[in-house]
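User: Working on a comparison across species. This one is Cationic amino acid transporter C-terminal domain-containing protein from Ostreobium quekettii. Can you predict its structure so I can line it up against the others?
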Amino acid sequence: MAGGASLWATFRAKAFTVQRLEAHLARSCVDKGLRRVLGAFDLVMLGVGGIIGAGVFVLTGEAAHTYAGPAVIISYFIAALAAVFSALCYAEFAVDLPVAGSAYNFISLAFGEFFAWVAAMNLFLEYALISSTVAKGFTGYFATLFGWPSEVLVHTVEGTHGLIIIDVVAFCLTLILAIILALGIKESTTFNNIVTTVNLASIVFVLGMAAPYFKTDNLVPFVPHNMGVRGIFRAASIVFFSYIGFDGVCTAAEEAKNPTRDLPKGIVWSVFISAGLYILMALGITGMKKYPLIDIDAPFSVAFNGVGLKWAGSIVSAGALMGIITSLFLTMLAMTRIFMVLGHEKMLPSWIAKVNARLRTPVNATIVTATVSGVPALLLNIDFLASMVSMGTLCVLAMVCCGSLWRQYFQPGCDIPVAPILTRLLLLVVTAALEGVALELKWPIAVWAAAIGAWLLTALSFYLLPVAYTSPNFSMPFKPITPALGVLLTVHLMSSLGWLSYVLFAMWQAIGVVVYIGYCMHRTPTPSQEREPLLEAGPTGSSEGGTDPNDAPSGDEAL
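Assistant: Here's the predicted structure for Cationic amino acid transporter C-terminal domain-containing protein from Ostreobium quekettii:
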């Protein structure tokens, strides 16, 4: 009994500990031995390469054929808005806290190490599974480039119900990229810039070849009656994941020459450029063929075959290969930096964080990344876990948006009541979830309208709170509405995922909690050494007053 009480006391004291920004910077922004060589162009190319994968040649056609018709253009625009709102929150955190941990460090700054660990677990799942599935996708495109069947280079083990698929090509690709990453950040980003340029050139080629065959009649009806507005949002929830990749740019923060100036450019411009290309590709395929006739597996290749340009399909396959390589590259880069930071923070064994003195890269973290990416790519079919990755990714994005709001109105060391801020954040999430469920389950329109109205009132009510912090380095437009919209759209997309996603997601979170309580919690610094408990921060009353944050004690003084 005493042991349980002691465990709870430790959890309560350490799980929700926060610091002022200055103290967090002093602890996190130590020189880890990485080279600061990346400029704004390198960061933008990292983001664009990570976002524009093979899906640009496939997903556009599938979304148009199955869900939204020509209105998939609107779906991509809606998804881009959701990505921009989240990207702005990332940019705000990144300029204040330019460290390689990305969302892990951002959420740690806002809510403490427990929620940061939850985010890290979801990031690990996202990067590990995406890298494995993307690497497997390379094998199929590589085979079709030579006119072979897509499955010719893989072997499905009999009696495993398709769960074990030997894919040596995917494993070799993962290993090669890991070696490139280990050789140095400048060398590896130069490689990424070249491959991304080839990918962008193939997209421009496809758009140029599609233009002469564009027919406005193919865009009618723009919103098919059997799909409607619900189909547009359904397609938006699917294509939104095409924009995932901007978060990976933040993991290169400690290798940027001027992170305060260049990180926002890398994050936001990569989303803008990618959104423009996705929308143009969606317009191109829906203009070439009527949406019911679009092939969902190879939309552009089949469309070109239909107009006598069979050779153009090879260019599409080559472009898809380049997109897979750049997407996998950023995913693996992000995973190595997350592992490095978790080792530095003692959430994982410290040896993972070691940076090679000659190469100036986290070689140990790169080896771990190659293992957790390469082994599943070599042996397993993990497509059934894709929905869990989507849920985890959206959860992290929503947490960062909530963290942006929380930080604006609460700072450690200030005599600010927690309850009014926390209540608003919870209402924001609940009303966003209710809105999404109402639309997904086709509840009466009055329920949806009431949920949207409640969300809007909650978002506007943040203006009644005194502002405790404004970033001196980045001015987010229309705050607090911008991060509130980020919460709305990410939570809405979470509500569109199936029940299996929730079950798998809950199981993964439970594993994360067990690991934190059994391992991480006992290794991180105690509150008396570096941190202060959030649960004891400020009054808990409902008063909406607060003191000037500039008069608050600095560093880690008592909350």
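For your comparison, note: Confidence is low (pLDDT under 50) at residues 538-559.

User: Helpful, thanks.
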